[in-house]
Amino acid sequence: MNYIDVAIKNSKAYFCLDCGKCTANCPISQYNEEFSPRKIINQAVLYNQNQVINNELIWSCLTCQMCSERCPSDVSFSQFIIDVRKEALNKGKLPQCSHGGVIQTVMKMMANPNLKQKRTEWIPKKLKTSKKGDVLYFVGCLPYYDNIFSKDIDVEPLEIGKSTIEILNYLGIEPVILEDERCCGADLLTIGDKENFEKLAKINISLIKESGASTIVTACAECYNILKNIYPSLSKEFKVKVWHISQFINEKLDSFKFKSPSDKKVTYQDPCRLGRYNGVYDEPRNVLTAIPDVELVEMVKNRNNALCCGTNSWINCDANSKQIQVRRLKQAVNTDGSVLITACPKCEIHFKCAMNDENLDKNSRINIKDLTVFFASSLKSGA
Amino acid sequence: MADKKQSSNDKFIPKIVVFACNWCSYAGADSAGINRIQYSPYFRIIRVMCSGRVHPNFVLKAFLDGADGVIVSGCHFGDCHYIFGNYRAVDNFEKTKALIHTLGLEEERIRLEWISAAEGVRFGQVINEFVDQIKKLGRSPIAEN
Lengths: 383, 145
Ligand code: SF4
Ligand code: SF4
Description:
Chain A is α/β, with parallel strands linked by helices. Helix content of chain A is 43%, strand content 7%.
């Protein structure tokens, strides 16, 4: 089958009614009038089908699924775009990789089985981890994000890792941390690099199997989505239960003792991979409001209407991304909350990067913290 | 290069990439040639306008594509044609070093050097030293595949 037929079939694009709801709700279309998911689908289904891969705009989609949320025919535009990108990549087309393409290169290097990484040196001695066990903490690319971003913008990705282990230790769990864990591959899959994605997945699946874990906890929305939804389709033996840290905490809320938190009025950013992709809306909110004195104020756009953080897979970050980020930051500031809580390390990096602009006005500046960092800092020690 | 068959260490021919800035280091390599300096041939030189242009991805991409070692070379401090380019090169190199470390490659596989247009002899020395160093380290694990 021709690639475009596969893409149309997988995304059910043939059901498209040409209603335009997708374009009307797409955050990119609001700022870039050239970009229209309706038009791309329409052209692919009706007209010059094989031209789609030549369209530079295919790399602009955020795969945020806002369009699918609204589509009356249940067309998955992001699935369509991923299939098209696969072919485009095969034909030698490339996205504009942000950060000089270094993140993509790091991911591809990790796909090499010969690599022996040193990716656990950041774990402080006082935190307890183990080599084998039932619960595995899947760290994701945090050590690399630390290498790449912590000098330029005000982020500390490894704090997310430390806080997550701290929370698990608090529950008496000494999580397995893989010495040589690889990137989950989400960003390569999204730009259409299926080959390297599968290499990464294969290594991870066998490492997880060796560890004997039956439960995986992750503090990254993207890793959660991939481990939960894609890995099982690659290997029948992959039968582990995958949790986002917010779900894991939510199950065991009674076991925590809190102190008064540093910030009392908070707002919450739904990462698309957690929200629209997996319907995880309530757990992070429960976790936040379980902390005494915390008041959660919603932004105008929340839950399934939440605005994306503006970039996907570290590609095509441009003026439109910035406009989306600033708009979202303004919505957060308008809640009068003192801190914006994120549940995906990438959302945090993208928003903080937008705030790195010294010309940005005060109405677009807010304190941003990861859910795990905020939660861990509200725990009463020694309970 | 028929290097696959020659993986035993004495016959190991390293692949080394040198990013040299247009104004100092590349001219330094030229000067090594003009002065007929004898030095190891196992490197490929890539001219960039400024050492500050060498983003960490340039170096990592070289490793991904099979390099065993990478040198980044620019003008001495104060001599940069663009005034602050080599300071930027230091920042970039620090990031590269951190990434190389996390990836588990030996930090000795990368080197930052300042070589002026007049230092042809030193260019040869640096290359010779680095080739020896890489020979000791052997094939990069990423290049092995
Ligand atoms: S996935 Fe998001 S960015 Fe892409 S077309 Fe749909 S709404 Fe627009
Ligand atoms: S919302 Fe759905 S049916 Fe309407 S134009 Fe977009 S893809 Fe087609």
